[in-house]
Amino acid sequence: MDNLLVLTVALPLLMAFLLPIVYRFSHFIAGLLGPIVLLFLIWLTFCAAYNLPAETTSFSIVIGGFLPPQGIVFYVDRMALLFAFAVPLVTLLMWPWKSNLDSEARPRQLSLLMVLVAASSGLALSGDLFNLYVFYELVAVASYGLVINSQMSASYVAAYRYLLLSAAGSVLALLGIAIIYFQTGTLNLAHLSLMAEKLDAPLGLSAFVMLLMGFGVKAELFPVNSWVPEVYLASSRRVAGLLAGLVSKLAVLIVLKTLLTMFNHTLAYDLLLILGVIGLVIGELSALKATDLPRMLSWSSIGQLGLVFIAFSVPGKTGMMAGIAIMLHHMLVKPALFLMAERWGQQLVDLKGAAKSSPLMAALFVVFALSLMGVPPLPGFWAKFLMLTGLAEVGSSLSMMALLVVLLMMVIEANYLFRVASLLYDRQARQQSSHGFINALTVSSMAAVLLAATVFIKPVSEALDVIATQASDQQAMIKITLGSKTGDQK
Amino acid sequence: MQQFFSMLFLIGLLFLLSILTGLLPFATPPMLIGQAIQQQAVDATGAANLVTSVVLGYRGIDTLGELSILFAASAAGGLVLGKTVRAKKAASENTGFILQAGTDLLFPLLLVAGLYIVLHGHLTPGGGFQGGVLLATAFFLPVLVRPGTSVSHKLLIVIEGLAGASFIAIGLLALYQGGEFLQPFLDKGLTGQLLSAGTLPLLYLAVGLKVGAELAGLLANLSTEQDGENDHVA
Amino acid sequence: MLPEVPAMLLAGAVGLVVIGLGGLVLSRNLYRLLLALAIAEAGANLLLILAGFDSYAVAPIVTDFSTSALPAMVDPVPQAMVLTAIVIGVGVQALALAMIIRIKQAYGTLDMAELKSKMEADLDKSLVMPGAALIKAERESDNG
Question: What is the DSSP string of A328-391?
Fold first, then answer.
């Protein structure tokens, strides 16, 4: 029953449509429907991953019974399953249990969250270019709505600026898709991979740049990441954590899919490297100047995503592994930090001595910070180390420069993170604050996962190796997608 | 200074796009999937309108995504605009006899046109989205012309939710019957008849109702503002 | 007849996109920015639909059921893609309009530069809270 994985898209959408009606009957049941669906999806994707027999098995789901390349396929390999599993999990961890929204707004917010889950799962699984575009737009519109925070008028302005930038990017992405369709006549990623020679420069490269700018908006890529600090500050911390931790990774996934299938040129990789380096530098330097925790986390997020792009600019399995590792690590750490910022979201000077009233959270902050910096033996170190070895292996002058920049930025990162930590453990206490029980529980469990990954680093890295090898295997994808005979065409 | 650089950027963009379009193979496109669909679509789906067979058959899940985008935009719009207020200006603005009588006459015509376009989506150009917009207009015009009438938001939400859920339910039903999600079932009938193409007209009906209810609600929301001012936005 | 795409349409599509993106870069009024976005989207849709277009071909609708041979038809896939893209554009534009209305109500201006500084000021204000007020605010607002 592999094709049940379509439920990762269909079921949350069904719930989203029905929620406003159910909410009118019972607030309580409607509030529970979301988490129930998420739990089911977690179980479903986990079973699908568990049932994959051999190490290199992947399969494709033919949507609607129309065989590719005319129809749409979902290509399910281990990386897709990994992200399809992460989507409901992270959303459940960041779920807004308590809300002060009124009875009109609350069902809308819950529906938008369900839509976000459906679209993100679609992004993880889809193997069709235009399908990816549609799901990407869906994520965008859902996020515009979730950013709105009616208590802060500034959120409307931030959301509008975000909308304009994202929509302009989508125009570019549509132009890129038009160019690709003109040249090749197909939209299926596997089929496009077969036609990659038709997508040579200048048309192919222009199409790639347009797609990069379009999808890069959510991936916080330079130069289309100017929306990040405003939006993460204006929205609620949970939404910010969800956007920074989850949605950005899926946007990176799209860029990766298009890069691997269609644009396997050195020019494309170099462009990713340069944009990644610029993003890293701007992100870390601005985080250094930040005077409050949410802004610091936003800029740090831009920096980390710059690192992800640098990692993926290394062709081959090493770069893939490093990129996935950094993405997973960030997906774990950033939402946890944003949850902490719910209580600690003011000016940094006000955080003085907060460790006295919340010792657990302060300690966990230190753990996350150390992993973010890349201190061994925490997983953050292994991820960065993988990337640095990959850069060194490439050996070109560009990658050597990138290596130096990364090392330099690690120093800067350590600087501002230690500054926050020392403020936390300061002698004088400026304020009393305690985090809610749910927050403390969530953050502690995320920290537990991080520490478990530290202890079991070897199996984790072996699993990542398998995932990365399979993800870079274009030939297998083409064979499985286009050679599939599942479903009969009536 | 910034204007100068912006103009430079635009001229460069124009230049680049012109070159790119010059390079594209117009009039001799590869049309790989296009040609295959043209040949197989009538047999595969039974719809005379090949675009409908693509929209609801070959790329059905794109249409589901598109539906959801409208839904999300409507929900987000509702979040932005805040509490729905009953339009306060009752008889203060008299829009005149011609407008009111004209709208009353147009209402059934718009309904018929909208439903016709929705139901014949698999035979002629049109379909759920286009017809849905007409339906939404039919229900929204009275609100514009007689300020103070309110649409029944409760009814609209119920229609919207049930229509959307039925689209997905039809898709899931196909899954339950052993096929794939959104696989067309039901008898294909004779191509060119109104009752043909299996589940495709049903899907378009669901789409039309959902879009109609959604847009009517969104437009009604947009037109009733809290302080009742109509600001000039030039 | 050899297939043909009128150059006017191509020029129009490119021109619309450039005008739209140019408007986005140069305008300061929120509403003009939205209009520029709409123009750019229209241009992109036009360019997409020109794929597989042929002035001498007919619409992809089967009207003659007597034969199974089809006349020269326009490619149906870009038509479906543009249908989706237009609907997406409509949704986004409607949402943007709602935001514009709310912003005008909240801030009283539609000038982007003014709004940017006001937004930054508001965001900074939301972060500075005196210590004692913090505990009270925590107990009151437990929003997600």
Answer: HHHHHHHHHHHHHTTTS-SBGGGGTTHHHH-HHHHHHHHHHHHHHHT-TTSHHHHHHHHHHHHH
Rounded to whole angstroms, the Cα distance separating A422 from A462 reads 36
- Matching residue, tokens 């792009």: A309
Contact flag A131-B62 (C-beta cutoff 8 Å):
yes
- Rounded-to-integer distance, Cα B214 and Cα A274, Å: 44
Instruction: Tell me the three state secondary structure of residue A188.
Output: strand
User: Which residues lie below 8 Å from residue B204, measured CB to CB, with a gap of 6+?
Assistant: B52, B56, B118, B119, B121, B122, B127, B128, B131
Task: Tell whether A70 lies on the interface with B, counting CB pairs under 8 A.
Answer: yes
Phi-psi region at B27: left, alpha or beta (left = phi > 0; alpha = psi -120 to 50) = left
Query: What predicted TM-score, i.e. pTM, was given to this entire model?
Result: 0.93
DSSP β-bridge partners for residue A59: A76
Indicate the residue of B24, B30, B161 with minimum beta-carbon distance to A18.
B161
**Do A303 and A279 form a contact (C-beta atoms < 8 A)?**
yes
Query: Do the Cβ atoms of A76 and A2 come closer than 8 Å?
Result: yes
| Lowest mean pLDDT segment, chosen from A18-27, A407-416, B33-42 | B33-42
Separation in Å, CA A100 to CA A28, A97, A130, A281: 15, 10, 38, 38
pLDDT for the residue B144? 82
Average pLDDT along chain A: 87
- Smallest CA–CA distance, residue C31 to chain A, in Å, is 11
Positions in chain B short of pLDDT 50: 226-234
Chain A residues touching residue B83 (CB < 8 angstroms): 102, 104
Tens-digit pLDDT profile for residues A335-347: 999 888 887 777 7
Predicted local distance difference test score (pLDDT) of residue C136:
47
Distance from CA of C41 to the nearest CA of A (A): 6
Residues A240-267: b if buried by 16+ CB within 10 A, e if exposed: bbbbbbbbbbbbbbbbbbbbbbbbebee
What is the tens place of the pLDDT at every residue in A115-149? 999 999 999 999 999 999 999 999 999 999 999 87
Closest CA to B60 of A134, C4, C53, A16: A134
Is the per-residue pLDDT at A215 higher than 90? yes
Q: What is the ipTM of this complex?
A: 0.91
Give Cβ neighbours of residue C121 (< 8 Å, ≥ 6 apart).
Answer: none
Alpha helices in chain B (DSSP H): 2-23, 32-45, 50-52, 60-81, 97-119, 128-145, 153-176, 200-223
Work out the average pLDDT over A384-391.
Answer: 90
A217-242 pLDDT, tens per residue? 999 888 888 899 889 988 888 899 99
- Which residue, among A188, B124, A72, has the nearest Cα to C60 in the 3D structure? B124
Give the fold, CATH level 3, of C7-59+74-140.
Helix Hairpins (1.10.287)
Domain ranges of chain C: 7-59+74-140
Q: Which of C48, C49, C75 is best to mutate for the B interface (most B CBs within 10 A)?
A: C75
Instruction: Map residue A168 onto helix, strand or coil.
Output: helix
Identify the residue whose tokens are 């006001």. Answer: C118
More confident: B71 or A58: B71
- Does B6 lie at the interface with A, CB-CB under 8 angstroms? no
Nearest residue on chain C to B211, alpha-carbon basis: C87
Share of chain A above pLDDT 90, in %: 33
For residue C137, the distance in angstroms to the closest alpha carbon of chain A comes to: 10
Task: List the single residue in A16, A24, A188 with the smallest CB-CB distance to B71.
Answer: A16
Which chain B residues are closer than 8 Å to C60 by Cβ? 38, 49-51
Subunits in contact with chain A (3 or more CB pairs closer than 8 Å): B, C
What type of residue sits at position A6? V
**Cα angle B165-B170-B174, degrees, rounded to a multiple of 5:** 140
